[in-house]
User: What shape does this take?
Amino acid sequence: MASVTLAAEGALAAKGFINSADGTRLAYRSWPISGAKITFAVVHGLGEHSGRYERFADGMGRHGMATFAVDLRGHGESEGKRGHVDSWSQWVDDAAAFVSHVESQQSGEVVPLGHSFGGVVVLSAVRSSRLAKAKRFVLSSPALKLKAEVPAWKTSLGKVMASIAPRLALDNEVDPGTVSRVPEVVAAYRADPLVHSKISSRLYAEWQRAAAENLGLAGDVKIPFLILAGTGDRLIDFEGSTELHARAPETSELQLLEGRYHEPFNDLGSDEVFALIAEWLKK
Assistant: This one.
């Protein structure tokens, strides 16, 4: 049996860069564990970045599991206009290139994990057979249906501008107080220079299309996946996760987290969530 060396809690992540399919330079962070049988390849949510997954890496590290996390284009330390894609396929390309890189670096199983918008990206990548080596994956608060109400004028403007001014950036209306019930997490989110509040009109339209497509074709997913959704999430409606599970009952397992906010890895009771993931992966 291979030995496992746990990373120290709070240890600084190693940083690296890869190129996406079109040459866009993507940053990533890694919290490796020697001998880990499972390594997560994390795809973050809108406006955030890989550095915000240190708590997740620490939590899963206590279960002997390693973590890598990417900055999608337009986020964190990666290239690209903040909060913009020309097409959803660019983020799918980013995720595919990243997961492939992690697989090349690790000897054990690599488990893709997508949070919020990143959950929709991972779903799209799996459905389009871009993550061919993945045996299973995890979704955290997948952004399939909004809970937060977008002003009608912004929705109408976004649809129009997606064609005539696709790079027009709007505020994403995210209240930092909705991501977690831990005051330190909220304060860090507000102060983080790599967190932004931008979403372009094209990205909004591309996300809506991808979310609807992933729900409609959820039955195409042929590998097991775990869905985590907080019932207290004020950003993303957990009913989207419920519908996803209902449309893929043979391959999905849904865990509704009572009262949890949008980021289950950064919320109160996160250790329970880490244990839940670890137990699912042992099945």
Observations:
- DSSP finds eight helices and ten strands in the chain.
- The helical segments are 54-61, 88-105, 117-127, 152-164, 183-191, 201-216, 238-247, 270-281.
